[in-house]
């Protein structure tokens, strides 16, 4: 019989997936925060967050691609270097708190930039620089695998600030980026034989439902300024999770 804490975690996962999927994210930072509040051990938290991330990002990537909100040209240079580095990061068993302060501060300032004037970020695109994308992908992939997230939380604001893709395309690119990095990080993590919670099937259904609804909103109904506002809120939540962990 399911207990109340398990059901509450499922509800929190569903709501987090809905919010994050609306901007093309998987929600790993939120799942980690929920599990930390529930007192779950890190050995369980990391694989659970990555699996949930894969499910939500997979749904999101599918929905955004179907809606034409995706760019292979921008996606693959980031992915080609991030995937092996995410595997490497996932295989390393090191405490992540050394990185969390700087990452939390970076996320917070990125959120402020989006929230202060969400409608004022220009949609005029700049030339895409493949060399920079390859380097950024490697860094984001390694950090993502090490911490147990998909990396879209960092890629989305970067793409918006650099103006390498339209806002709705950014969400689709981020979803696919999160999917491949979460899968790679999880494969690296499997080397340590992580334990999985018995409630994982229930939580998987919850994040799939939330992810489907959120991706539908983001890919077809939310305007670019609203996507930036929601992304700003998501970044604030992620920053607080990292800084207060």
TrEMBL record:
InterPro entries for the chain: TM_pro_TauE-like (IPR002781), TSUP/Inactive_protease-like (IPR051598)
Pfam family, one: TauE
Gene Ontology CC, one term: plasma membrane
Keywords: Cell membrane, Membrane, Transmembrane, Transmembrane helix
Compartments where found: Cell membrane; Membrane
Transmembrane segment boundaries: 44-62, 74-92, 98-116, 137-164, 170-189, 196-214, 226-244
Bilayer topology term: Multi-pass membrane protein
Keyword Transport: no
Entry similarity comment: Belongs to the 4-toluene sulfonate uptake permease (TSUP) (TC 2.A.102) family.
PANTHER family linked to this entry: MEMBRANE TRANSPORTER PROTEIN MJ0441-RELATED (PTHR43701), MEMBRANE TRANSPORTER PROTEIN-RELATED (PTHR43701:SF5)
Protein name per the record: Probable membrane transporter protein
């Amino acid at each position: 019989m399911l207990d109340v804490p398990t059901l509450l975690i499922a509800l929190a996962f569903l709501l987090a997936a809905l919010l994050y999927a609306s901007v093309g994210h998987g929600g790993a930072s939120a799942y980690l925060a929920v599990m930390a509040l529930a007192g779950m051990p890190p050995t369980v938290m990391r694989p659970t967050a990555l699996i949930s991330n894969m499910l939500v990002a997979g749904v999101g990537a599918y929905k955004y691609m179907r809606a034409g909100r995706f760019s292979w040209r921008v996606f693959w240079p980031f992915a080609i270097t991030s995937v092996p580095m995410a595997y490497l990061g996932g295989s390393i068993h090191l405490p992540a708190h050394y990185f969390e302060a700087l990452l939390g501060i970076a996320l917070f300032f990125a959120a402020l930039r989006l929230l202060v004037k969400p409608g004022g970020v220009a949609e005029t695109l700049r030339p895409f620089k493949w060399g920079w994308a390859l380097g950024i992908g490697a860094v984001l992939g390694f950090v993502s695998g090490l911490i147990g997230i998909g990396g879209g939380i960092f890629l989305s604001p970067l793409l918006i600030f650099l103006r390498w893709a339209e806002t709705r395309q950014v969400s689709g690119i981020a979803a696919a980026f999160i999917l491949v990095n979460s899968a790679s990080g999880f494969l690296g993590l499997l080397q340590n034989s992580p334990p999985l919670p018995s409630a994982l099937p229930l939580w998987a259904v919850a994040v799939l439902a939330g992810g489907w609804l959120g991706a539908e909103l983001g890919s077809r109904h939310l305007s670019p300024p609203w996507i930036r506002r929601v992304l700003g809120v998501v970044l604030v939540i992620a920053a607080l999770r990292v800084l207060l962990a």
